[in-house]
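debug: dumping io for the single-chain case to check the tokenizer round-trip. Nothing else runs in this session.
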Amino acid sequence: MIETRALSPALGVEVTGVTDLLHPQVVSRCLEALKWRGVLLIRGLNLDDEAQLAFSRELGTVLAPGGKEIFKVSLDPSVNPSADYLRATFHWHIDDTTSDVPAKATMLTARHVAMVGGGTEFASTYAAFEALPAEDQKRYEQLRVVHSFEAAQRLTHPDPTEQQIQAWRSLPTHETSLVWQRHDGRRSMVIGATADHIVGVSPEESRTLLDELRDWSTQERFRYTHEWAVGDVVIWDNTGMLHRALPYDPASKRTMHRTTIAGEEAWA
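debug: decoded output
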């Protein structure tokens, strides 16, 4: 029998009692839990790549950035040539903010875990927005934000070389509403490491407000921290959950296998 348990008051649900991961009832319950709770945990599944892809395809269309449906998350350059860029994931962020249509969800399976650190934190910008005073909600709904790859990379490389800057700026920026109202009426905030500046606002005021909203949204009451065990599967709503990896020793061989589910609704 499938059972669910809240991971924190504001977000997250753990699913237990799963015997057939691809059963329509299991898939339906997972999609419903993901929509309303933002983060879904199933412990000890120990999925191989084939099983992970099969389950991912039940949740939606699997994206293949760089031609690969499975992306290995590791700070070891021999495992992931983009390891240096992944250091930006230690900062709160939302994936795909520079795409017209953001990924709907992300799935990670834990293959190797760090002995110390290496957890993943999530924070619900749905809950954070709903907890704001009404006058602040109305103000923020009028604002727009420009997101860039450069903004995130500058957090880990505050003194970049000209070559780094050129590489970052070769990637497109994207403008979104600060508050995203979905077709179903739900509202979340599009903030985090890629949020470069607010349109029509000075850089200083932009930075102050964006940092304040990040700090507000990542309070403990809106947050869940997952400590990984080998075999765990975590899926989250990429469009409304801020997330970050907690620091760990790159020599720990911590490795996650990631699949990404295509989105269906463009940023507002």
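debug: round-trip ok. The chain has one domain: 3-261.
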